[in-house]
């Protein structure tokens, strides 16, 4: 849409200025044409304003959706980190128990030393 005033609007403005200065008179037909041109431009501006508001609402909706998704990913990541930490804390003592049991089995499998 073209929001720049047409040459006709500029001509109307000059005519109105001349009328106000007493140098010319606006005829009813010219007034109707000027009013129609101003109304058309006003309608275009209103349409652009509504479209701008709709675009802002759509962007805000997408932003909220992205924030919800980011919060979900953050929770899942935190749960993964917590799971890994718990697994480490459980596995470390179990690994120590297995190592000590293996050492005990090896010790029992060897011949007793001659201490005399």
Verbal overview:
The protein is mostly helical and 116 residues long. The protein has one domain. 83% of the residues lie in helices and 0% in strands. It has helices at 7-20, 28-109. The longest helix is centred in the middle third of the chain and has 82 residues, at 28-109. It is rod-shaped.
Helical stretch count?
2
Strand proportion, as a percent range, falls in under 5%
Shape: rod-shaped
Query: What's the number of domains?
Result: 1
Question: Which features characterize this protein?
Answer:
mainly alpha, 116 residues, rod-shaped
Summarize the structure in short.
The protein has 116 residues and is an all-alpha fold. The chain is 83% helix and 0% strand. It starts with 6 loop residues before the first helix and ends in a 7-residue tail after the last helix.
Show the helix and strand layout.
Elements: H1 7-20, H2 28-109
């Amino acid at each position: 849409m073209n929001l720049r005033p047409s040459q006709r609007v500029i001509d109307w403005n000059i005519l109105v200025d001349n009328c106000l200065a007493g140098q010319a008179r606006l005829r009813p037909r010219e007034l109707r044409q000027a009013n129609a041109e101003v109304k058309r431009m006003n309608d275009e501006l209103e349409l652009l304003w509504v479209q701008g508001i709709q675009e802002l609402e759509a962007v805000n909706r997408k932003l909220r959706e992205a924030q919800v998704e980011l919060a979900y990913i953050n929770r899942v990541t935190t749960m993964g980190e917590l799971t890994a930490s718990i697994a480490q804390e459980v596995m470390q003592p179990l690994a120590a128990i297995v190592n000590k049991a293996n050492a005990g089995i090896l010790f029992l499998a060897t011949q007793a030393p001659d201490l005399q």
